[in-house]
Amino acid sequence: MTDAWTLGLRIGRGAALKALGLVVLAVFALILPVIAPDPATTNIAVFTVMYVGLATAWNIMGGYTGYISLGHAAFFGIGAYAFGLLVIHLNITPGYAPFLLVPVAGVLTAVFAVGIGWIALRTRAATFVIVTIAFMFIVQLLAENLVKLTGGGAGLSVPYPHDWGGDFFNTPFYYAMLALAVIALAASWWIRRSKFGLGLLAIRDDEDKALAVGVPTRAFKLTAFVISAALVGMIGAVYGYYVTYLYPQFVVDPLIGISMVLMTFLGGLGTLSGPVIGAVLLERAQLEFAYRFGASRLYLVLFSAVFLVVILILPRGIVPSVADLVRRWRRPAASDATTPAEQRVAS
Amino acid sequence: MSLVLQAAALGILTGGVYALMASGLTLIFGVMRIINVGHGALVVLGAYLSFALFRSFHIDPFVSLVVTMPAMFALGVVLQLAFIRPLKTDREALSVLVTYAIALGIEGVLGYVFTTNYVELRAWYETASFAIFGFHITYVYVFGFLLCLAILGALFLLLYRTTFGGAIRATMLNRTAAQLIGIDVDRVSALAFGVGVATAAAGGVVFGITNAFNPGSHYDLISRLLTIIVLGGLGSLRGAIIAALIMLVTEDITAVLISPVWANFVFFVILVAVLIVRPQGLYGVRVRDRI
After folding, report:
1. Would you identify the CATH topology of the domain A33-281?
2. What is the CA radius of gyration of chain A?
3. Is the ipTM of this complex over 0.90?
């Protein structure tokens, strides 16, 4: 009885701490542009929140189903170009109105994702990874070659507002990115707790057995792929509006594609908080390296070194490793009794 | 018509280089079940090593292979021991990331040492050409093709006529069974990785002599090589060689008939078309839980 009571108290205390932490984090994220309004800081904040959203969205496919896509930069680019072309051809006045087109860009990206996913998901494991890379280069080549539509290598200029009705600088973009990151997190949270999410995890563990017990694997995989791609596309749309100039090699950038993967791996594949932690840590490091060594290309070497250290030392990511440590510290005797399934649920 | 024939001839000659580079990549996949995303960067590294030897000592690029291939073999073994072997869980996914990191590291170091300006390997046969049936073919393509044939031939001899080759093929077929009959699969894996990287060095010389390159060239290269090995069927040497020839011939013919900007594109379109019909590639086998 005492055991049950202390356990209850512990869970209660743990949940309260978690809730408190979340509230503090949410308040901090909401008031950040107010307490640090200078453009340099908000610029960093925009990119950090952008990567939080990207990694979380990627995790819905890569983390839950175990299908590693290295080509999500394609959807980022499709979203950005769809948004840019809509704003230009619909003659939308720059300002707050274009933000309303972000979901439209998301829907368009989803349409592309259905086609790409339908073909790519005919393959598994290693072949899937390669096919996603190939699709990324197809999109990049299309952006370069369809000069009449995208402007090709000369770039596509997205109209930029000169008056926000106040000295807001990057603030509107920050809140747009934050909203998308929250949507991605909510989707990720909901999927994890749904029957759909359970089906995805079953696919990750053993796809053929999942199919045998009645999980509609093809439909589930494609749905996860499309949700993930649409979220990435919407973030790409806001990014396109933010940078105002779309070049094929910067919008469909393999480095953006690999960054969201690495962030998820760093934080913890298939966990809810992992991608967030990974994105915040890695985006800081990336900016720091680029700022100090950007001119000499050494930043790539440093980035790759961090990359290797993370994977070799923490192959399962920060969140599962820390959760393991905590569990061992709390229940030293029972530590070996935890099954892999339990470890995976830690989030 | 003669333009198309000439394009096809050029496609076969350049296809040889891609066949060589892709066979190293598919060999590594076959033995270890990992995708070496760093293969393109290793090819570029091989090209830069020959470039450095030429610049400092005026060694002919083809002759420099005597030095660079053993060096790259050693590098491959070291990379395998340091970064691939320690991966215990979730190897397939993690190895993609690790080799991607290796690619970025190589790109960064090359950019630091050689800057990001484009360079090209030079030799007397670079611009000299001869005429055959009214086509003009540059010597360098022929020499490159012959070198690739020679190294591919050596690779096949190694795989099909030596005990070590037998061990490699056994490991490719079934890792556990190979272990059971007493093959040291860890050692085989390390050496096979080295062999794959050494072929990248050879491919790098021919690539560098027929193309201008910079440290960032590996993205384009790896996307093509990966497409080739998927088309051929992962882990199939024969498939990789045939796929390389199909791809390059189609690409060069497209460049002539339609436009060079769409040549690259056709490459990927073929891949998509093949995947719809045959997801396992031309020579791949459908393994129950893997591919």
Report:
1. ABC transporter involved in vitamin B12 uptake, BtuC (1.10.3470)
2. 21
3. no
